[in-house]
Amino acid sequence: MPSDPHRPLDRAFVDEGLLSPVTVGHDETVTDAAFLDALVTAEVGLSRALLQAGIAPADAVDEIETEFGWQGALRGCRDHGVDGRALAAAAVAGGNPVIPLVGALKDRVGTDARGWVHRGATSQDILDTALMLVARTATSRVIASLAHAEISLRSLARSRRDEVAAARTLTQHAVPTTVGLRAAGWLRGVARAKERLERAQHALPAQLGGAAGTLASFVELGGADAAAALPAAYAHELGLAAPEAPWHTSRWPVTELGDALVQAVDAVGKIAADVATLSRSEIGELAEGSGGGSSAMPQKRNPAASVLIRSAALRAPQLGATLHLASALAVDERPDGAWHAEWPTLRELLRLALGATAHAASLVTGLHVDTDAVTRNLEAGGGLMLAERLSLVLGPVLGAPRVSGLVVDAAAGGDLAAALAALPEVAALAADRGLSADAFASDLLDPAQYTGLAARLVDEAVTPQETE
């Protein structure tokens, strides 16, 4: 990383997205450079919190934040000059990058300030906090993409509210639905995922517990009251939520975030799956605004965005499961490997969510509905999609076996409308309604007359809900 599509490949590159096209151009917020910025930010933020708690001297903290480019809670430290490649190599010996980072930072400041770098903290305090900082930035982009998709889906559902289409269950035509209701279902999924991710983002906490989560080092430095207030002060400096307690081995911040990210990818994955299916040559009801090509078959217009989104949706759940497995195996007061397994897993899950939701926002904005194809597919069954309605309306009069026989005959090529109109019982029902037998049969077989509450469900979905 990063997967910058315009930057020449370095022969020593690790991951430019060559095998992950869904993330290319969307993952700069989760690169090693972004994590390094977050690690330095977490260290400087701790020094600032110690100052606010009346523990660290102002001159020392001023030197630390100036040396490492502190730019405030939301931007953190940029242009800090720490060599990420050297840090990664040095991290192997201790098992995490914070240990060599502390040494590198201390070497850069004077003697008086040196003692206030990483004072009282443990490596996990810094690394967990950095993970939350990176997640905050990345999830803001995911939420923005979901919001973009939500706007486009609301417009699609509203504009196609009454466009009748064939619903399919277990791959087969079932009963009539509407294009608008299908879009409304996508909209609801995206909206719920966005709301859940917003809640998870707001809850992202700083981590501060000292060596084993007791804050004993901070009590020793400033007393019990100052130590108790320090985690909230630390969180405030970084723009994160104040933790209720250290969460070194209580990993709900990671699993809840992971679950919300998986739900977001699920939501757009569902859209992509439907678009890919409905854009098949033999169906043709949907088409991406900009289809992909083929190296061997120039006539093809592949649903490339849907394919990429689906690739992310197939991978994300397993990453979420890995986070839960690591959480369940977070033993003692610092896990032996489970914690380490979270870092690349959460980073990849964030990366997939960034790419999938960005592609989804573009996909739904440019999605094309082929009304002729929708109508053609709807009419292809010759009224068979109304079999359920016939059973409900005519079953009490004709009996279920006769209705079933009519449908079976129609499926074999018979004219269902003519067969219905020829029945004396149907003629009697039609007369009760002031209709001819032909008109009544036509009405029974009109898909637009059997969409149930589709229009109401669309209206409810596209109307923004007021928050209490």
Description:
This protein has 468 residues and is mainly alpha-helical. 60% of the residues lie in helices and 4% in strands. It is built from 19 helices and four strands. The chain has helices spanning 32-52, 58-67, 84-94, 98-106, 111-114, 123-159, 179-202, 216-222, 224-238, 252-278, 304-328, 338-365, 371-379, 387-398, 400-411, 416-421, 424-432, 437-444, 454-462; strands at residues 164-169, 172-178, 286-287, 368-369. The strands form two sheets. A two-stranded antiparallel ribbon has the order 1-2. Strands 3-4 form a two-stranded antiparallel ribbon. Helix 8 (216-222) crosses helix 9 (224-238). It is elongated and about 100 Å long. It starts with 31 loop residues before the first helix and ends in a 6-residue tail after the last helix. The model is unreliable at 293-299 (pLDDT under 50).
Beginning-to-end CA distance, first to last residue? 43 Å
Major sheet characteristics: 2 strands, antiparallel
Q: Low-confidence stretches at least 5 residues in length (pLDDT < 50)? A: 293-299
Proportion of helical residues: 55-70%
How many DSSP helices?
19
Strand fraction equals under 5%
Q: State the shape.
A: elongated
Helix and strand content put the structural class at: mainly alpha
Question: Nearest-angstrom radius of gyration?
Answer: 30 Å
- The H-and-E topology, N to C, reads as HHHHHHEEHHHHEHHEHHHHHHH
State the total count of DSSP E strands.
4
Mean residue pLDDT: 93
User: Major sheet: order of its strands?
Assistant: 1-2
